[in-house]
Amino acid sequence: MSGGSYYVPASSKWPALGSLAVGTMMVGIGTMLVHGSGSLVMLVGLVAVLTVMWMWFRDVVRESRGGLYDAQMDRSFRWGMGWFIFSEVMFFAAFFGSLFYVRTFAVPWLDGEGAKGVTALLWPDFTASWPLMNPPGSDISGPHEAVSPWQLPLVNTLFLVTSSITLTIAHEALKEGYRLTARNWLIGTLLLGVCFLLVQGFEYHEAYTHYGITLEAGIYGSTFFLMTGFHGLHVTVGAITLAVILSRVIKGHFTRDNHFAFEAAAWYWHFVDVVWIGLFLFVYVF
């Protein structure tokens, strides 16, 4: 590079360890879902993921505070975060695609509609509907009632939409040099995220105990928990990231012109909010 040096980060073990940690956690989750065991493996993986996140954040913060990053590294971070969010878009696109396929094709086929309506011969008494309250197989018991979108899901939507607004205010305050204002609005954002998780936990309890919506309650139950559960996991990761950013704001790490870590966390949080709006519309409302 002309006018400066090209910084090459030191060899890092965190990407490999992070992959192993996430893999361990997912093996544990999968074992729990299929066999009802594996909670210890899942817990070990979760602790490992949190540990890797902490140590990786620590190293990056130290490098940044040590003045090792330049404009080239800033561009690299931006491209890296952009591609990461793109991969997350594809991750959730697969879930939305599966929901679309089930509702538009698979369920109507079982009722005799469409090009593959011959599959109605499998369960001739089946009637297609969504949410699917009466699965075709007699060995599967469907839910008693669907989750109303105008109660807890609407509250959570208001929480996340408001959190995007408060985070934007905090970002603008930081760019203007109002660190105290940025801190306060960031605390508000984090509290709204925590409220979202608490409400979702209560909603899950209601779904299991009162509505009969479980992972075994047919395709509606499985898609409901798969999509909202993974989104809740992303909210948790986003909240942890915002907590780290908040601690750095309090310590005075950021300046008006040098605060990409804050921006990256904001990008991720806004992405999670947009995904929730899609979930609210297509999982709860329509």
TrEMBL record:
Its EC number is 7.1.1.9. The chain crosses the membrane at residues 14-34, 40-57, 77-102, 150-170, 182-199, 219-246, 267-285. It is a multi-pass membrane protein. InterPro entries: Cyt_c/ubiquinol_Oxase_su3, Cyt_c_oxase_su3_dom, Cyt_c_oxidase-like_su3, Cyt_c_oxidase_su3-like_sf, Cyt_c_oxidase_su3_a-hlx. The keyword Nucleus does not apply. It is an enzyme of class 7 (translocase). Signal peptide: none annotated. Keywords: Membrane, Translocase, Transmembrane, Transmembrane helix. CDD domains: Cyt_c_Oxidase_III. Residues 2-286 form the Heme-copper oxidase subunit III family profile domain. PROSITE patterns: COX3. It is found in: Cell membrane; Membrane. This is cytochrome-c oxidase. It comes from Litchfieldella rifensis.
